[in-house]
Design brief:
By secondary structure, the protein is an alpha+beta fold. The protein is built from three helices and six strands, in the order H-H-E-E-H-E-E-E-E.
């Protein structure tokens, strides 16, 4: 299944994210596949909470970033996807290294999209699962 409705690449997504929360947190886009996007975030002084673990909010930022970017590239040209709802289950704390997220579609509809995002530590262990619902807005 070819999901993307617009030309997409790691370079294009990275350029789009310059000087945003994405770049300030050190999020790096890694791969665009036929039906997924992946990126990673460092676990460092910018992203840890006071108890030394990756901040749960940063996990949600990574998940929202991946789902939002994916949803917008999966929209017909001229349409825009905006977030309606996100949830996250934090399953394992991460104190160092990188957390890598992969977003895959659960539902691509005319007016909504749902994306599943899995975040894993450097050992490949699941640290967080998130589900993002997006509204698809038609051109004005």
């Amino acid at each position: 299944m070819h999901l993307w409705q617009q030309p997409i690449s790691v370079a294009a997504i990275t350029a789009l994210s310059a000087n945003t929360a994405v770049s300030h947190l050190g999020i790096e886009f890694l791969e665009v596949g036929e039906d997924f996007i992946s990126a990673r975030v460092p676990v460092d002084a910018r992203t840890r909470q006071p108890f030394g673990l990756l901040h749960g909010g940063v996990s949600v930022v990574l998940a929202e970033t991946l789902g939002s970017v994916a949803a917008n590239y999966a929209c017909p040209v001229g349409h825009q996807a905006v977030g309606l709802d996100i949830n996250a289950n934090h399953l394992r704390g991460v104190s160092s290294g990188w957390v890598t997220g992969t977003a895959r579609p659960v539902h691509i509809g005319r007016s909504t999209q749902v994306w599943q995002v899995e975040l894993r530590n450097d050992a490949g262990e699941l640290s967080c699962v998130s589900r993002l619902t997006m509204a698809v807005l038609a051109p004005k």
